[in-house]
Amino acid sequence: MLQSVAAAAFLNMLVDNGINLEVIWFDHDMIEIAVRCSNGHFSGVAEIYVSNHDLSEFASGLRGFPCSMSDSRTFELGTFNPDHADGGIRMKFGCPNSSGRSVVEIGLRSGNCPALGEPESVALRIPIEPAGIDSFVQQLTAVDHVIGACAFLQMAI
User: Fold this and answer.
1) Count of beta carbons in the 10 Å neighbourhood of residue 64
2) Would you give per-residue pLDDT tens digits along the chain (157 residues)?
3) Structural domain boundaries enclosing 132
4) Looking at the 3D structure of the chain, how many domains does it have?
5) Pairing outcome for strands 18-26 and 30-38
């Protein structure tokens, strides 16, 4: 038990609580990003491939969230096809109750994982705030073909 607590504490030092997308490779039509997700209890990292326009489309689709208490938006980057070697992330943004607090539910799989729920996958929920989403959208639109370029959605406290 002590080892798992120490390992979780070490991982949380490496992964800020929230969602971090970082460019790790690119060419003329593809970008490879490292996706790091943590809610302080659960964490995951996967490397996924996206097309050059996927991040800007993601930003456009997320812009203005939440516009109402019933607003819900779902996005997928990468792939969940086990025949492909790269990973994927599914994100469902929503407002689960009348408290006004928004959350993102995440399913993340590595390229070595056949399906969510299998080894090398994680499912977690991260509370978020509208101001954090606005900042994340701005960062996503600025991510360019530069190794190390990042967009970070901070977890709400």
Assistant:
1) 13
2) 445 555 555 544 456 899 999 999 999 889 999 999 999 999 999 999 999 999 999 999 999 999 998 999 999 999 988 787 789 999 999 998 777 689 999 999 998 887 888 888 999 999 999 999 999 999 999 998 899 999 999 999 8
3) 2-154
4) 1
5) antiparallel
